[in-house]
Amino acid sequence: MTTVDTRAVPEPDAAVVRRPARVRALWLLAALLVLAAVMVASVAFGSRSVAWSDVWAALGGADGTLEEAAATKRIPRTVLAVLVGAALGLAGAVMQGVTRNPLADPGVLGVNMGASLAVVTAVAFFGLTSATGYIWVALAGAAVSAVFVHTVGSFGRGGATPLKLALAGAATSAAFASLVTAVILPRNDVTGSFKLWQIGGVGGASFDRIGQVLPFLAVGFAVCLLSARGLNSLALGDELAAGLGERVAVVRATAALGSVILCGASTAIAGPIGFVGLVVPHACRLLAGVDHRWLLPFSALLGGSLLTAADVVGRVVARPAEIDVGIVTALLGAPFFIYIVRRQKVRAL
């Protein structure tokens, strides 16, 4: 009689176990409910507490009382937080899928800071004032930064490994941050307007600004979501994906383009907010598994919830002042990043 050493059989990782469609659908519904609750909380809570009756009145367009006016001003801020959080969460999931890198994130890979440097340079030296121009310049900066980091991370033996990409992204992000400071400091005329934007936040949102960036975000969302099936093939490896009929280079370039559009547009309107794209996809894999057809919508929903919740926390803990949402997400994301780096089993996705 033979025996099997069960210790030699690895336990399945919770992140790669296939989830039944019914379970995923229930989690998706729960994510929608969480997002709705966080949006209501964002309108209700801040430096001035607003009653639920005033929230509903503000949603109906009333702004007669101070409470209703406060709630009315918070509505576009809430919408912007949801859009930017969804964009960053989705972009992070796509970047991790494209590079098969668990450390990939718009902030970690220097994409957001590249967009920031491009915008600051255009404003300081070329007199850029158009809101749409901000977005186009940010997209160009994000794209150049992404290509640069991937090129540097590909040098040496083994190609673009997760650790090399993370190191290249961190170094590039630090260098770009220094250049942004070098550009801003001598220019007193732009220092004030970019001081808070550098940190990242959604304060001062308006529906006019949202309307200007919405077409770019819509294109980015569409491109990323349509890349889901191709990302599933890339997860099997380039050779096997090509054997299944996928044009690997086209799939990777298209998905990367969608994530760059989302990163650039988000940075142009809200500044370089970090770590949302890192934390959210890992959390979503625990709920939805690794199928990108489910993972990407989950990442968008939870990304919007996370950034909106972080904005509420920043407004509540420092009343009557507020902590910018970029600081709150950094406090949350930095320990998580260290945890991911220290997990020896996480080499690639």
Describe this structure in words.
This protein is mainly α and 349 residues long. The protein has a single domain, classed as Orthogonal Bundle (ABC transporter involved in vitamin B12 uptake, BtuC). 72% of the residues lie in helices and 0% in strands. It is globular and about 65 Å long. The chain starts with 20 loop residues before the first helix and ends in a 7-residue tail after the last helix. Mean pLDDT is 81; it is low at 1-17.
Write the SSE topology:
Layout: H1 21-44, H2 52-59, H3 66-99, H4 111-126, H5 131-153, H6 162-184, H7 188-199, H8 207-226, H9 228-234, H10 238-243, H11 248-270, H12 276-288, H13 292-316, H14 325-342
Please give a quick description of this structure:
With 349 residues, the chain is mainly alpha-helical. Helices cover 72% and strands 0% of the residues.
Features:
349 residues, mainly alpha, ABC transporter involved in vitamin B12 uptake, BtuC, 14 helices
Report, as a whole number of angstroms, the end-to-end distance: 39 Å
CATH uppermost class: Mainly Alpha
The total beta strand count reads: 0
Q: Tell me what portion of residues adopts beta-strand conformation.
A: under 5%
As a whole number of angstroms, the C-alpha radius of gyration is 21 Å
**What is the N-to-C order of secondary-structure elements (H for helix, E for strand)?**
HHHHHHHHHHHHHH
Biggest beta sheet summary: none
What structural category do the secondary elements indicate? Answer: mainly alpha
Uncertain stretches of 5 or more adjacent residues:
1-17
**CATH homologous superfamily descriptor:** ABC transporter involved in vitamin B12 uptake, BtuC
Helix content, binned percent: over 70%
Average pLDDT figure: 81
Which of globular, elongated, flat, extended, rod-shaped describes the shape?
A: globular
User: Under the CATH scheme, which architecture would be assigned?
Assistant: Orthogonal Bundle
Count of individual helical segments: 14
Instruction: Give the domain tally.
Output: 1
CATH topology: ABC transporter involved in vitamin B12 uptake, BtuC
